[in-house]
Amino acid sequence: MKSLHHENLVNLLGVVRRKDQVLLVTEYMSKGSLVDYLRSRGRLHVTRRDQINFAFDTSAGMEYLERMHVVHRDLAARNVLIAENGIAKVSDFGLARNEKNTSLESAKLPIKWTAPEALKLNKFSNKSDMWSFGILLWEIYSFGRVPYPRIPLADVVKHVEKGYKMEAPEGCPPEVYEIMRQAWDLNPDNRPTFRDVKIKLQALKQTTAL
């Protein structure tokens, strides 16, 4: 984490060691997690411009991790934090691994955010992060709802493996929903890169009114 520096990643300032504890000191993100921010403010206070900014900021942080060959493995709105100035930053590298080391251990995985190949085969990559990013986009445009709202958790994987994709949240721009659909391609090779997605979101950001 100390070697990763980007304006859209939560900055690690230092490490404190105590007997059997290791404490991480990070920059202070005063507005809390993205999911709490969306839920507490809702449609009345979160504008279209806010939504596209959060999406773009997250894609920029993830594009940097992609370039650095780091796989996050737990990307979700709960792990994106909002700074005082409203900038979104990717945090919680608790599950992050260097690309070459991605399947060493199996942590308890968040089923609704994890790509099928990662759940079944423990295959993590920047493309499995892209699947999670698609879910995160859905969270942004649904104002923090829990994904797959009408499907019991036990049935989610079965539905997804048959090709089920969530519908677009109300008011979600079609261009953003298309990114979600591409991110949820069952074949990881067909999913876009974070570089591709960042470019698309940057263009959308420039044309999005308040």
Give an account of the 3D structure.
The chain is α+β, with helices and mostly antiparallel strands and 210 residues long. It is built from 7 helices and 6 strands; from the N terminus they run ββααββββααααα. The chain has helices at residues 34-45, 48-67, 116-121, 126-141, 153-161, 174-183, 194-207, and strands at 12-18, 21-26, 70-71, 80-82, 88-90, 97-98. It has a two-stranded antiparallel ribbon. Strands 3-6 form a two-stranded antiparallel sheet. Helix 2 (48-67) runs antiparallel to helix 7 (194-207). The radius of gyration is 17 Å and the shape is globular.
List low-confidence stretches. Answer: none
Rg, Å, rounded = 17 Å
What fraction, in percent, of the residue positions are helical?
A: 40-55%
Overall pLDDT confidence? 92
Instruction: State the end-to-end CA separation.
Output: 35 Å
User: What fraction of the residues are assigned to beta strands by DSSP?
Assistant: 5-15%
Biggest beta-sheet profile: 2 strands, antiparallel
Give the strand tally.
6
Overall SS class:
alpha+beta
Apparent shape:
globular
Q: In DSSP terms, counting alpha (H) and pi (I) runs of 4 or more, how many helices?
A: 7
Secondary-structure element pattern, one letter each: EEHHEEEEHHHHH
Order of strands across the widest beta sheet?
A: 1-2
